Amino acid sequence: MLQLSIFLENAKGRLAEVISLLAELKVNLRALSLADTKDYGVLRVIVDDPVVTAEKLRERKVVVSLTPVWVLMVPDRTGGLAEILNQLVQQDVVFEYMYAFVEMEHKQAQVVLRVQNKAIMEKAVQTLNLPVK
Amino acid sequence: MDIVDKAKETDRTEEQWLKGLRKTVDRVLPIPHYQESYGAIGITQAEDIKSLSDFQRLPLTTKEDLRRNYPFGLFAEPMENIVRLHASSGTTGKPTVVGYTSQDISLWAKIVANELRRIGVTRKDVVQVAYGYGLFTGGMGLHYGCEELGAIVVPISGGNTARQLMLMRDFGTTVLACTPSYALYLAESLEESGISRDELKLKIGVFGAEPWTEGMREQIEARLGIKAYDIYGLSEIMGPGVALECPAQNGLHIDEHFYPEILDGEGNPLAVGEQGELVITSLEKQGFPVLRYRTKDLTTLHYGKCSCGQVGWTMDRVSARVDDMLIIRGVNVFPSQVEEAILSSGGFEPHYLLVVYRAGNLDQLEVQVEVNETSFSDEVRELEDRQQRLHQRIEEILGISVRIRLVEPKSIPRSEGKAIRVIDKRNKEG
């Protein structure tokens, strides 16, 4: 899965502007997280068609990159995430960051995961037979 | 043989230089300002200058002298012999006004033509002069030089970037003359314009009127696919063409109608090879001869034979202007040093803005740089590393710690003439 990572200058209204731009481009946001520093932020979003959306954003002078991430399905119950993470750690997967959202319909949590080494993660997912997107 | 064309290979002796210098002393002595200040040290006639060290006793001429004698007080010819006036913008006070006789104008044109010839410009070239036309000497200085050479001039002046690019393609422009910051903006606009580089015949750039760095030259050369040459000049001396590089791109050849010196902060002469303020005396100018004029430009002089074959004075690119110097917490800072840091640390666009403000009792310098697709990373840590590297690089060069602020592309205003690199908020805040 490719995530859109968008550079946001720390200026009043900039986040709202970019989100509005996504709305204008008729992009549905599946998941979203905002990493912030003192001067700028990185907006991370999961959308249906990341490649096309990135192209459209670039045309509008937005700095955007496509980042490979994994979306894990996690049972929405206590300890659900811990179980999966521990399994991945045992397979030597190192996490960079993650964010989660709950999908009411399927009673499932989804976790967006960015890892340090893509190949290790691919192997781990296969070995553990994890439900991923 | 024409005075400009002759004897490029010959070395000049002190006596030969003195001949020219005395001529200018002769020309300015009837002017009350010079009469008074030279009389005070016992110089009442050109013959009193017996050596170059005598010459170096003459008081320096400053921009303030020009302002005090505003508008025509330092002209050496009666007004009926003056055919053109140029003036500085006067943003920092009264403008400084200079006047030219028709012989001055033709000498200027010959000097510029000669220099353009040296970098390979010929009658077949189409020169787009995107310097401003008007009181500023940039546009007309290049214009007359190109006509003298016989090249085709496109006097488009600055601004209207889309049109610049269209005409560049349609007229088959081969030479572009403008400020380096505008050249960079044109390069950036070209990348977005839908006009491909292959449709252009551009091969040479003649850039000046603001300090720039070697890193900026590399950027411009790579992005426009041309050879970029540094041209130097200022209206008080003549205008563009006081010096221009040669194909060796290793220093600007100072035209032989000017006598250069380098002085330290106190006005003492420095040896060849040492960095200081450039001071220039014109040797042949009539309307507005200028003696030992302080240019406020910092550079280094060399004398000798260049690999291009020419013998004479060369100067390094102007690294900074005295007037551009910022004093941050007691440390001297030049915008060009920050430019050098940004370009050498890599990963950021060469567009930057320095914002100086006071926080508490301390001066703070904020450096705004634009993030681009290649420097932007999804990992905040990576981005912070890059920011940190730039921070370190600037600290190494400037000796002070600054605040780096990453901003979005195209958010720093682009210039169509001289770029604005500094916003100093200290005075306004009191």
How would you describe what is shown here?
The complex is a heterodimer of chains A (133) and B (430). With 133 residues, chain A is α+β, with helices and mostly antiparallel strands. Chain A has two domains: 2-67, VC0802-like (2-Layer Sandwich); 70-128, Alpha-Beta Plaits (2-Layer Sandwich), CATH 3.30.70.260. Chain A has four helices and seven strands, in the order E-H-E-E-H-E-E-H-E-E-H. Chain A has helices at 14-24, 50-59, 80-90, 118-128, and strands at residues 2-9, 29-36, 40-47, 64-68, 70-75, 95-103, 108-115. In chain A, the strands form two sheets. Chain A has a four-stranded antiparallel beta sheet with strand order 2-3-1-4, covered by helices on one side. The termini of chain A are close together. The mean pLDDT of chain A is 90. Chain B has 430 residues and is an alpha/beta fold. Chain B folds into two domains: 1-322, Rossmann fold; 325-429, GMP Synthetase, Chain A, domain 3 (2-Layer Sandwich). Chain B is 31% helix and 27% strand. Chain B contains twelve helices and 20 strands. Chain B has helices at residues 14-28, 32-39, 52-55, 63-68, 102-118, 137-149, 161-170, 180-193, 214-224, 335-345, 380-398, 426-429, and strands at 82-87, 97-101, 126-129, 152-154, 175-178, 204-208, 227-234, 239-245, 252-254, 258-263, 275-282, 293-305, 311-315, 320-321, 326-328, 331-333, 348-359, 362-371, 403-407, 422-424. The longest helix of chain B is centred in the C-terminal third of the chain and has 19 residues, at 380-398. Chain B is globular, with a radius of gyration of 22 Å. Residues 1-9 of chain B have low confidence and may be disordered. The interface between A and B is medium-sized, with 21 and 17 residues.
